Amino acid sequence: LVHVHALIGRGPMHVDVFAADFKQFYCRYNDPSYIKAVKIDILTLLGDYHSAESIVGELSEYVTDVDAEISRRAIRAIGKMAVRVPSTAEPS
Fold first, then answer.
1. CA dihedral defined by 67, 73, 75, 77, rounded to 10 degrees?
2. With the CA atoms of 77, 80, 81 and 82 taken in that order, what torsion angle do they form, in degrees rounded to the nearest 10?
3. Alpha helices per DSSP H over 1-88
4. Is 46 in contact with 9 (CB distance < 8 Å)?
C-alpha cells in the first residue's frame, strides 16, 4: 500500500491507473490502524469529480472510528476532498 501511495503521489498520470478501482482502498473493519491511515490517504489522492461523492460517503463512516487518529484523518480527508471537488461540499 505504501508503494501505491508513493506512486499516486507522483502525479495525475499515475492516479489514472488506480482511479477506476478506488473502492479497493476502502477500509475493512479488521484492518489495523496503520493500514487504515494509508488507505485514507490513498482515497484522498484518488478522489475526482466521478468518485468524490462515493469516497466522501465512505470517509464519513470512518469519522466514528474508535481510534481517534483515524477519525481525525477522515475529517481532514473530507476537507481536502471538499477543496479539490467543490460539489462535495454542498449539502445534499
1. -150
2. 120
3. 2-8, 12-19, 33-46, 52-62, 68-84
4. no
pLDDT in tens, 25-78: 999 999 999 999 999 999 999 988 889 999 999 999 999 999 999 999 999 999
Q: Which long-range contacts (CB under 8 A, 24 or more apart) does 86-92 make?
A: 87/49, 87/52, 87/53, 88/52, 88/53, 88/56
CA dihedral 57, 3, 5, 24 (to 10 degrees): -20
The confidence band for 9, taking pLDDT boundaries of 50, 70 and 90, is confident
Average pLDDT (3-30) is 87
How far is it, in rounded angstroms, from Cα 49 to Cα 31?
27
CA 54, 59, 78: angle at the middle one, nearest 5?
95
- Give whole-number Cα distances, 2 to 15, 16, 84, in Å: 14, 17, 22
